[in-house]
Design goal:
About 65% of the residues lie in helices and about 0% in strands. With about 475 residues, the protein is an all-alpha fold.
Length: about 475
């Protein structure tokens, strides 16, 4: 017995392995332990008489079947996201020319889309919504878990399409009723929009039922986190960017001038910061982005105001930019100029007997420039903090060529588009005009009248038109 005790003290692992029954399976290890490609497992598989590796060896998280409720994101998943594949490094000169050519290609491509018209710009926004949604949804997903939840990722796209259906039906009803071909009535869209609220509710119900049926034991926490993540993406990306389409259909100038103000502010902040950065203010503009300087922000504000004023004065001379579009056709719109785009004489306050012709839209453009300079950069700061939380340099490489993903290029534009829509509804559009029904709505109400009332309305309209004709 004393010899056995000495053997136990010298070789405890061997003694414990001898004590264990070789034929007795360990339920906990068989449920959660995976076979590893270590040298012990290779040697044990080659000789059936040899014992398997010590089952008391500490197991790595990568060796276990992932359980979203028991552990957080594993080190392997985090490294997979934070450490991209190594690529051959480019020199500074190569990086500069690569980004230079890609930038001008995107600029000319953007001008080409504007030249095609309102519908092409709206299609560009739809593509931005889909790519932006995919980029952020991919950040919150864990591939190892998604493989064990087949079909769960499709739930994101179900709620995405539901939100698109609801928002387009609310904001773009008038244009969707006209359809792509304005001379033909789109009965299918008219039927969908007539029951728009009920169909949206049923789509939400279907999504909730599908989510409940997809719940799997051990993954409840992960699945509910993903549901909340999906709702946040819809609010941040889809809802806000839909207002861009409303601004475009009301006149490209309501989209082009604010977007140009954001781009100008971004470029001039970089250039002013490179020339005058930290010469007057040593502290950074914001701690989240140490490279942002006060000199860059002040210089960018000045140049943005100057550029936006001149750019607005240039665009108001063209009907293509100021006329609203009815329907999603490709024909250029024509219209009578709104008063906001007609130049009026203004006397300069500090220059006596100096009169300048200025359109009211130019004053509104200064508001957009101030917003782009003071508030717009916080959209970029928000995106920077978001990427820092996930230890990422870019959201994705959907754009590539050193530009990152679509959200890396459009982070500040999202906040601007909502501001332009709200600003127009509050300060630009006449309050009385907001309550006037559109022509499709008036037509639908006329069709609901009886034949006698329709004839009476026709006689009244004929009398009004004749009276105006004789007055002129």
């Amino acid at each position: 017995m004393e010899k056995i005790k000495t053997i136990k003290e010298k070789m405890p692992d061997v003694f414990y392995a001898m004590k264990r029954e070789p034929d007795e399976p360990n339920e906990s290890s068989t449920l959660r332990q995976r076979k590893t490609a270590s040298s012990d497992s290779i040697s044990s598989s080659s000789s059936p008489n040899k014992q398997q590796s010590d089952f008391r060896r500490p197991r790595n998280k990568s060796d276990e079947a992932y359980s979203a409720d028991s552990t957080d994101e594993s080190d392997d998943d985090r490294k997979q996201k934070t450490l991209p594949k190594k690529q051959p490094e480019l020199t500074k000169k190569q990086k500069f020319w690569k980004r230079f050519y890609s930038t001008w290609t995107m600029i000319f491509g953007f001008f080409l889309i504007i030249y095609i018209g309102h519908t092409a710009l709206c299609l560009l926004v739809v593509g931005f919504q889909a790519l932006g949604f995919r980029e952020i949804a991919a950040l919150g997903s864990k591939p190892r878990v998604e493989n064990q939840l087949p079909g769960f990722y499709l739930l994101h796209w179900h709620f995405f399409l539901t939100s698109i259906f609801f928002l387009y039906g609310q904001l773009l009803t008038e244009h969707l009723l006209i359809g792509i071909f304005p001379n033909h009535k789109n009965l299918f869209l008219e039927l969908l929009l007539r029951h728009h609220g009920f169909l949206t509710f049923m789509l939400i119900v279907i999504g909730v039922i599908y989510f409940v049926l997809s719940l799997k034991k051990g993954f409840y926490k992960y699945q509910f986190k993903q549901l909340g993540w999906c709702m946040a993406i819809i609010i941040i990306v889809v809802v806000q960017s839909t207002f861009v389409m409303k601004n475009i259909m009301d006149g490209i100038i309501w989209f082009f001038v604010p977007a140009s103000a954001i781009i100008t502010n971004d470029i001039m902040a970089y250039m002013s910061g490179r020339v005058l950065g930290k010469k007057f203010f040593k502290a950074p503009l914001i701690g989240l982005s140490p490279n942002k300087t006060w000199e860059g922000a002040i210089g960018a504000c000045f140049w943005t105001l100057l550029f936006t004023w001149g750019f607005a004065a240039f665009l108001i001379d063209y009907d293509f930019f100021i006329c609203p579009k009815k329907g999603f056709g490709f024909a250029y719109p024509t219209c009578d100029r709104d008063e906001i785009f007609i130049r009026r004489p203004y006397e300069m306050p500090f220059m006596k007997d100096t009169i300048v012709n200025i359109a009211p839209f130019q004053f509104h453009s200064l508001i957009f420039a101030l917003y782009a300079s003071l508030i717009g950069p916080f959209g970029g700061f928000f995106a920077s903090g978001f990427k820092r939380a996930f230890k990422l340099k870019d959201f994705s490489q959907s754009v590539g060529f050193g530009h990152g993903g679509i959200l890396d290029r459009m982070d500040c534009q999202i906040m601007m588009c909502v501001f332009v829509y709200v600003y127009r509804q509050s300060f630009v559009i006449n309050i009385a005009a907001q309550n006037v029904m559109s022509l499709p709505q008036i037509t639908q109400n006329i069709l609901r009248l009886s034949r006698e009332d329709q004839l009476k309305l026709l006689d009244s309209l004929r009398g009004i038109v004749e009276a105006r004709h004789h007055a002129n």
